[in-house]
Design goal:
The chain is an alpha/beta fold. It is built from ten helices and nine strands. Strands 1-9-8-7-2-6-3 form a seven-stranded mixed sheet, sandwiched between helices. The chain has a two-stranded antiparallel ribbon with strand order 4-5. Helix 5 packs across helix 6 and helix 9 crosses helix 10. The longest helix is centred in the first third of the chain and has 32 residues. The radius of gyration is 20 Å and the shape is globular. It starts with 5 loop residues before the first helix and ends with a strand. The N terminus is likely disordered.
Length: 337
């Protein structure tokens, strides 16, 4: 699959580095790009609702997330998302008036969060969930990861694709699509399967119950994948067709590779030491052996998945958060309305 690599959008950035460039007469862009300082200024007078203790709970392994990052990056994003949610509610009411219908409850606002392994998208999703839930307009915010929609390991082995776990074909896409369709259909309660990173498999008979949410965040590697063309030539629906807003957490491939190796080394000292871990065999490795194994896994699995499947979906996101070496967000690119 052809890749929309970093050079493609970085070139867009160079041609359109800031809205001021448009005013200077350069070719227009479909994106608004704001550096960190400009983005942070959008919520300068709003106090962050999260405490340091809450951040400690939300912080992912290796994420350099602090109160400054929350204040300068996630607070503006949460306020922007709140505006989108409120606007969707107004549009819903106007549409029902136009149709001369008694206004039923609006369906949940669905946000997709995508990005590579080790880029920090799970932390982004968790922080957004907590921050959005603090705003009184939408207190019930659910978070569902697509890991639960992976085929069980036994099924992946039967199909011969266990080593391609995380690639699009390793997911039960029909079940994931049905979940999102049920959410957007306004069902009171919708179930999602549960995945255990300790045992590296879907947990049989365990479910997450999503009950009357205001907002649902769907986080995963491939949530922005476009619709597939079926054998009969028709195009099927995609999960992203039902997103109201989407975020892509981005960084250079060299950075993400290093973060993956660093995370692997930390897991070797923590979770991999658990005898119940699927990866317990890595716990006894030396430092050099662990680095070599992490690089092998990245270069053989996660890196190709990023280039072939994940990175090409970046341009489909409503908003892209570009990270620097220290995991801090350097700039934000927002699609124009």
């Amino acid at each position: 699959m052809p890749s929309v690599g970093a050079s493609h959008l970085d070139g867009l950035q160079q041609n359109h580095p800031h809205p001021a460039a448009e005013e200077a007469g350069r070719e227009a862009s479909p994106y608004i790009e704001l550096d960190r300082a400009a983005w942070a200024s959008l919520a300068r007078e709003t106090e962050s609702p999260l405490t340091e203790a809450e951040l400690t709970r939300l912080r992912g392994l290796g994420d350099a997330l602090d109160l400054d990052e929350v204040q300068e990056v996630y607070l503006p994003l949460s306020r922007l998302l709140s505006l989108y949610v409120e606007s969707a509610g107004r549009l819903h009411r106007k549409q029902e008036d136009f149709l001369h219908r008694r206004t039923p409850p609006r369906t949940p606002f669905v946000i997709g969060v995508a990005g590579s392994v080790a880029v920090g998208k799970s932390t982004t999703a968790r922080v957004l969930q907590q921050m959005l839930a603090h705003w009184p307009e939408h207190p019930n915010v659910a978070l569902v990861t697509t890991d639960g929609f992976l085929y069980p390991n036994a099924e992946l082995e039967r199909r011969g694709i266990l080593q391609r776990k995380g690639f699009p074909e390793s997911y039960d896409r029909r079940a994931l699509l049905k979940f999102v369709v049920d959410i957007k259909s306004g069902r009171d309660e919708v179930e999602a399967p549960v995945y255990s990173h300790l045992v590296y498999d879907v947990v049989p008979d365990e479910k997450i119950l999503v009950k009357r949410p205001d907002i649902v965040i769907v986080e995963g590697l491939n949530v922005l994948q476009p619709a597939r063309v079926r054998d009969d030539g028709r195009t099927s629906l995609a999960v992203s067709d039902f997103f109201d807003f989407s975020v892509y957490v981005d960084a250079g491939r060299d950075k993400i590779r290093r973060w993956y190796v660093e995370r692997f080394l930390r897991l070797r000292e923590t979770a991999f030491r658990d005898p119940g871990s699927y990866f317990a065999r890595y716990g006894a490795m030396s430092h050099d052996e662990a680095v070599a194994e992490a690089e092998r896994i990245w270069d053989g699995i996660n890196g190709p998945n990023l280039v072939e499947n994940i990175l090409p979906t970046r341009s489909r996101a409503t908003l892209v958060m570009r990270k620097d070496w220290d995991h801090s967000v350097r700039y934000v690119r927002l699609r124009k309305l």
